[in-house]
Amino acid sequence: REKKISELLSEREELLKRINSLILPGKKEGENSGADEETVRKTPLFIDTTTKLETAERRIKELETHGEKIRQKWAVTKGDLELVKKTIFEMEGKHERRWNELLSTFSESDSVPI
Question: In this predicted structure, what is the pLDDT of residue 45?
């Protein structure tokens, strides 16, 4: 299976090279002039690839922005959680003190003879 995959990939690469040679008429191997570069830039394959690249770059920026927003929300949420934990701890302490005060008040009133 792996052998077949590698054969198909190499065949695909050869076909792409052949397509490029047909799209760029008059180009000989080793020839790199400005006109050839301009011709390459006008090919549908180059335009399509460039468009896909620009789309991918824009998507990356969007995802980075979205990720940063998520990290900021996560930081706020963690801060809120710490505040809630601290508040609950303080409230439990106050309630325990008040409970002890009430118990001592009721126990004193029970010990007083009527």
Answer: 80
